[in-house]
Input
Amino acid sequence: MTDLSVIIVSYNTKDLLLECLTSVFGSSSGISCDVHVVDNGSMDGSADAVAQGFPNVRLIRNPDNRGFARACNQGLREAQGKYLLLLNSDAKIKSEALRELIAFMDRTPDAGAAGGQLIREDGSLQNSFDNFPDLCTELMNKSLLKLLFPKRYPGKHLKFSGPVPVESLIGACMMVRREAMEAVGMLDEGYFFFLEETDWCLRMNDLGWKIYFLPHVRILHLQGMSAARDISSARIEFYRSRYRFFGLHRSFMSRLMLRAGLFLNLCIETFYSLMVSLISGFAYRKEVSRLRVRLKLLAWHLLGCPNHWGLRGKAKTETEKMVQGRP
Output
């Protein structure tokens, strides 16, 4: 068994992926490590570039986009490490981050998972941990909740003197103990993108494992690169993931209130964007873009949340086009 297995899911992020791998190998000196890249049918040459530039990486080439959870599980099944690191292809490991995470896990036997502080290129902080979704987090302003109730809803600007237990981690760089994974099972493949790591943390928490945030461990993260190409499809997938999380972990009444509340909020936001766009003569491009996304989300809800919309539907359509295009 190696010390660490790194699992990276890639989808059309070739240059970022190569930089990510360079950072992993540059920071893993002295650590026995196996690295797995699961390519979700990228069309930008990602898989070939990995095979050529990093022949020691264990590469899985999927013919299509199978989503984050399913692809991660493919890598987890082949992983040999005592610890398992889920790492986004748009993340870069800082020099001592891997050693610090492993050392913390070694001395903290109740830690099911641990993660560090995600930062942007300019050094500013990103959200690196979060609360489990509830009606307050999903229907109210999160920034306001963090301002009014910082102990219940801690945010990225709180000062921590050392590692602290949190409810869940952002999965861009998340180290998991093998025993915890074996106890709770792998990621839920019912999630295509978004909240799969939150669901995982909740299942660990339910079995007594703790989730820790290490503020002194820094990881560079170019947030949202994979989802940014199709914002409306990504937003649909985010709504779908929230509905799945509540369906699995919240009461029937909470599920009803979530759907009603999110739909009402969406109607209000769409009306606002429409009014601003009309008054400005559709000159305010940012608001017009928001209007397009919100109208598509509204249509998705009104049509009963069809499965073929969103990122998973887009992935299926791309696969069908590839198949039809073969000679």
About this structure: Residues 68 and 193 are 6 Å apart (CA to CA). The chain has two domains: 2-221, 231-324. The two ends are 44 Å apart (CA to CA). The longest helix spans residues 252-279.
